[in-house]
Amino acid sequence: MLEMLSDPQSVAVIGASRDERKLGYGVLSNIIRYGYQGRVYPINPKADEILGLRCYPSILDVPDPVDLAVIVIPRKYVAASLEECGQKGVKGVIIITAGFREVGSEGMKMERKLIAIAQRYGMRLVGPNCLGIIDTVAKLNASFAAGMPYPGSIAFMSQSGALCTAVLDMSIGEGVGFSRFISLGNKADLNEIDFIETWRDDPHSRVIMAYLEGIADGTRFMRVGREVTKHKPIIAIKSGTTSAGSRAVSSHTGTLAGSERAYEAAFNQTGIIRANSIQDLFDYSIAFARQPPLSSNRIAIVTNAGGPGIMATDACERAGLQLASLERETLDALKEALPPEASILNPVDVLGDALPNRYGLALESVLKDANVGGVIAITAPQVMTNAVEIARVIGELSTKYDKPILGCFMGEPTVAAGVKVLNEYRVPNYPVPERAVAAMAAMMRYSQWLEVPPLEIEEFDFDVETIRRVFDQVRADGRLTIGDAEAREVMRACGIPVPASVVASSPDEAVAHAEKMGYPVVMKVASPDILHKSDIGGVKLNIGDATAVRDTFDLLVYRATRHMPDAQIWGCQIQQMVKGRHEVIIGMNCDPQFGPLVMFGLGGIYVEALRDVTFRVAPFSRREAEEMITEIRAYSLLRGVRGEPPADTAAIVDALLRVSQLVIEFPEIVEMDINPLIVHEAGQGSVGVDMRLVLS
Amino acid sequence: MLEMLSDPQSVAVIGASRDERKLGYGVLSNIIRYGYQGRVYPINPKADEILGLRCYPSILDVPDPVDLAVIVIPRKYVAASLEECGQKGVKGVIIITAGFREVGSEGMKMERKLIAIAQRYGMRLVGPNCLGIIDTVAKLNASFAAGMPYPGSIAFMSQSGALCTAVLDMSIGEGVGFSRFISLGNKADLNEIDFIETWRDDPHSRVIMAYLEGIADGTRFMRVGREVTKHKPIIAIKSGTTSAGSRAVSSHTGTLAGSERAYEAAFNQTGIIRANSIQDLFDYSIAFARQPPLSSNRIAIVTNAGGPGIMATDACERAGLQLASLERETLDALKEALPPEASILNPVDVLGDALPNRYGLALESVLKDANVGGVIAITAPQVMTNAVEIARVIGELSTKYDKPILGCFMGEPTVAAGVKVLNEYRVPNYPVPERAVAAMAAMMRYSQWLEVPPLEIEEFDFDVETIRRVFDQVRADGRLTIGDAEAREVMRACGIPVPASVVASSPDEAVAHAEKMGYPVVMKVASPDILHKSDIGGVKLNIGDATAVRDTFDLLVYRATRHMPDAQIWGCQIQQMVKGRHEVIIGMNCDPQFGPLVMFGLGGIYVEALRDVTFRVAPFSRREAEEMITEIRAYSLLRGVRGEPPADTAAIVDALLRVSQLVIEFPEIVEMDINPLIVHEAGQGSVGVDMRLVLS
User: Fold this and answer.
1) What is the three-class DSSP state of B231?
2) CB A494 within 8 A of CB A657
């Protein structure tokens, strides 16, 4: 797929120029200079020849077929030129020209026109408003970037052209190589998801690295992301996530930036590893690109200096990496290989006077150890330190063992030659221990993700007719909000237990219902016109006998009438009084990018004051629902503190999954919450006491 | 102070060698090579001359006075040599030789001997087990480090010698300079606090930068730290803070690493800025060393690329920095200076084709803006970007305005020359926006610290005699734990309100007391022998009338007798039943490094399940006590949610300050908690219901 980009037989540059200050020159000369082997056609009506190549006035004049065209001409000519590309049968077009969606509504209109033309001819577009693309496999540099990346196994894409140039420059400085290098621009046609999907089976790409400001299609992103991350890691920056940042996004690319919480959930659910800076992006990507996968979360640290060893240990604990307990044989081998003052416990400190040989013996011992999944090899330059030879020892061992080794040669001039040797052996180097540990932790998260079974969405039997009937009724009434009895009907139809509840039209009827239900009961004024019943004193809890029921009936009806004389009042609702150990909340909100986003948290103050809640994009699996429960901070309360019995978390999981199914099956639900869902002890189930839904 | 280190007139190297592989050669040649101007005396009985200098068999043979001696001889000769230094009248000695405290008890014994000798002669020691010291002001490199740092205004010390060499190497690579550079080693005599104190008035040092694994004397550290940070910033790594890390510290230097919580509190209270890695340490230090202070938390971002601008904005929000709202005149100036597609709102995007002139106009506009405290100047290399000239423009403006400017030139080869120009202008550069923002945030925290008034400890009138009497009584009984009535007596003596409470020896007496107090009451079995009364069902709450009091009296006494037949039973305690909106806990624990560490949190599950607590080292000020209350996550509950009235936080502050005074005045208290302190609505006070103290 997308071979017109990664393996075109011929490329036309529309707007090729012999003026070195023009982008049309830059693109053409990049294509030629960096060794592209296909045919190249400069297109420019005002020239016969550019850079030694015959030039054509229009793409239609090119005698042979053209696979890929790069457009670098003023905005007003782009549409006509694209039309000609279509007529010519061009398969892919890179539009470098800017001035479209990113400049406002007029540009947006012109961009829509480009999309229409491309669709009509079945052409795929990159851009507009981009730097171009670079492919080190095809040796094609169809961009105006000032340089060519080294070949490598990282496929990169960026929604910011300036970031492309910065990343390219950094990669050249640090000797990091790329397979594919894509500037996405405005993503009029091809977007990040298309490339993720394409690179899934790309044998030249081991890692996908992305800088994103927004997502084109949340649902497809989830599906493709989930699938592709099982084949290769995706490391991504999503910027513009904070509220201040979002403002900047809007003024920059016009992309609607989704809320941080939704992205957090989406990245979590798709196994995409989030990077917080370009530095992290590089640090993580080179670890994946150059080293074998990490098979466990237990690592070893080998160091020639105590201080950095401690710092690495601190960082491991913060990152959730464990220091492996070394096996008996390893400890024996280390004891033999190292001087008595050395520390043979992990972190293994080979001491400052360690020669390469001693360093190597220690490193090999821990690599052999079955408890060790990966190693961080630290070298601080000291008097006796031969950084180059230590690097060679590390490099050689890295070729012998199928475990990741990340280097941490600290310092600059003194260790530079050693770092170069590490690079030759494809052992990534990090200048401080914390960065090596962060990269190892990213490898751990990816290994854990590979263990996650494929997404399996359970299907529950819903009483779909009832739900449909309630929704129709509500709509027929011209309402959008559903609460009370109607909402309980919906819950019951989804299989979520609700308290027994009936409407009584008189005090006598109320007493009869209450006696049947058993005291105590809850009473609420029953009126379709009064939404916030507790605000007017229209809800009473814990009513214990017949007299109280009668009194309350009269009181609530009186209050309702006084509050809203014209309200239709049906009487009072008599409801079973549910008491339980815990109250939780399950909510849903429609995210503009990802659709239904389901929230879970403990009720009341935990949600309001502590914001102790978690989110998942629906639909989600049982495993993900279980994760939601355990990842809130207050989870220990559900597990039971001070000898209390644990809560029925299985019942919460069940409710979460049913809500997930409900909001997917009925996309007209734009908002809902069950608050509270009262949760009993393990095995005793849960009851949804109150629910509110909003339809679109 | 410590002029013998920073400005010695003469230096002897005991163990000077002409064998290039020996440290004694390295030290001597470093002293000579890097331009030390004083007299240098190699000491070695086996040589007449080394490196062109006359050599003496013993320091006693040197004809002139010696200010500073460096000892690099085998461990067994060190003590005798130090003794000779004393006889010679040497003022300071650097002991590079290792094999002391860090290798166990025998080494510890030898180290103690060195301390005794030094004290006898009034000599100050650096080390043992260190790399030496370097002073760029005196041009003295009395170390075996492989290089000399650039001169600069950062004073650095490290408890790890290997880290010294790594930092030195990095600093040379990045062009960062130092005034003083100290390897602390085992800190037998001079420790981090001595150097902090010394550098307070050092005109050559603008910033103090430290790598620490432990603190010599917590109380002095607090006092000196608090004071010195008002004169210059201190940036420090404290490693070995996590539990795994602490293990590594113990095996490394034998320093007892204090608990993470205590260090967090101590750094917070002294205004020391914590760095989490060597990278942060450098990043923050150069900002302080090279730029003027940041006067507000509102900054501006100027960028030639949208993506990095968004990333910087995201990072600002995470770090608590605000993007300044630009003044009308600034916006007008920007509108005039920039093309229409540019973004004139902060972040100011001058666009990818910006020439140095446009960049400069935008930068100067925001620098002039009174709302802007500091600027982050981002440059991503793009086709038209002239990094060198943009750097020059930034540099020139940095000399004109007294606001910090941090550069962020992204990339490597393309921007390297520009970064060099920034360095010449002393504008720090960070390769990614997040690091520039983190450095700016450190500057913000420091400016905020400078606003904090000097520590003022309030003094309350305690009934010291009562406290003393209770403690004496407890000790006389051979007990260490104080609870119940005795503890309430202590609380009352400290001025912390307690509920009315009396011991009744009979049911009749109990009823009489309860009637006087008013129902409901709390009853507890009164026995000095039963500590955990509620465990045996010995506590009853909410007792509402005389019959219940009589029944409860008999029940509790029966249970106590059954539980512990030999216990002395005084009867029952009758206590006022205190009900309040909130229960908080105030606790104290003795930290091995910092002494009394006071804890605050909401009671019950907030402490147990959510660990939502905060700490301060006692004594602390009213401001610090107020901070404790606002910094727990559940603070919003105290402030009042859902229209509830706020809690009486002033009463909590009062209780915290009284506890602070109590544990300082009575250092024999090693542990205590008031749990719960029941807090009423604002203005209504608080009551300490239960208290427990443990004496040493």
Assistant:
1) coil
2) no
Q: Which residues 184-243 of chain B have a CB within 8 Å of chain A?
A: 211, 213, 237, 239-243
Architecture of domain B500-576: 2-Layer Sandwich (3.30)
Domain A149-240+254-290: CATH superfamily is Succinyl-CoA synthetase domains (3.40.50.261)
CATH class of A464-576: alpha beta
Q: Which fold has domain B582-695?
A: D-amino Acid Aminotransferase; Chain A, domain 1 (3.30.470)
Fold classification of B1-131 is Rossmann fold (3.40.50)
Q: Give the residue from chain B lying closest to A169, CA to CA.
A: B411
Quick one: pLDDT at residue B229? 97
Answer yes or no: do A307 and B163 touch at CB < 8 A.
yes
B39 beta partners: B10
Answer whether A591's CB lies under 8 Å from A617's CB: yes
Q: Name the CA dihedral angle for A617, A619, A625, A631, rounded to a multiple of 10 degrees.
A: -10
Residue A605: list chain B partners with CB under 8 A.
634, 637, 641
User: Which residue intervals of chain B bear CATH 3.40.50.261?
Assistant: 149-276, 291-451
Better-predicted residue by pLDDT, A692 or A652: A652
Interface A:B, Cβ pairs < 8 A: 265
- pLDDT tens digits along B248-289: 433 332 232 347 888 999 999 999 999 999 999 999 999 999
State whether A605 and B641 contact (CB < 8 Å). Answer: yes
Write out pLDDT tens, residues A536-558: 888 898 899 999 999 999 999 89
Name the band, by pLDDT with cuts 50, 70 and 90, for residue A244: very low
Residue B564, classified by CB atoms within 10 Å of its CB into exposed (0-12), middle (13-18) or buried (19+), is middle
The reply to whether CATH 3.40.50.10860 applies to domain A1-145 is: no
Distance of CA A139 to the CA centre of its chain: 31
Beta bridge partners of B34: none
Smallest Cα–Cα separation from B263: which of B284, B241, B233, B245?
B241
Residue A371, beta-bridge partner list = none
Return the pLDDT at B244. Answer: 45
Q: Who's near A119: CB < 8 A, 6+ residues apart?
A: none
Cα(A577)–Cα(B238) distance, integer angstroms: 55
The fold for domain A292-451 equals Rossmann fold (3.40.50)
A414–B contact, CB cutoff 8 A: yes
- B555 interfacial to chain A (CB closer than 8 Å): no
Pick one of 3.40.50.261, 1.10.1270.20, 3.40.1190.20, 3.40.190.10 as the CATH number of B291-451: 3.40.50.261
Is the separation of the CB atoms in B79 and B110 below 8 Å?
A: yes
Q: Do A160 and B306 touch (CB under 8 A)?
A: yes
Taking phi first (over 0 means left), then psi (-120 to 50 degrees means alpha), and beta for anything else, what does residue A607 get? alpha
Do A307 and B641 count as a contact with CB atoms less than 8 A apart?
A: no
The pLDDT > 70 percentage for chain A reads 96
In this predicted structure, the answer to whether residue B442 has a pLDDT above a threshold of 80 is yes
The pLDDT value given to residue A104: 86
CATH T-level fold of B149-276: Rossmann fold (3.40.50)
E strands, A494-609, are 501-504, 521-526, 539-543, 571-576, 582-591, 595-602
For chain A, the average pLDDT equals 92
Stretch A146-151: mean pLDDT: 94
ipTM: 0.89
- Retrieve residue A175's tokens: 């000797």
The reported pTM is 0.91
Cα separation of B25 and A370, whole Å? 44
Please give the average per-residue pLDDT across B31-57, as a whole number. Answer: 96
CATH 3.30.1490.20 in chain B, residue ranges: 500-576
Q: What is the structure's pLDDT at A273?
A: 98
Say yes or no for a CB contact (<8 Å) between B161 and A414.
Answer: no
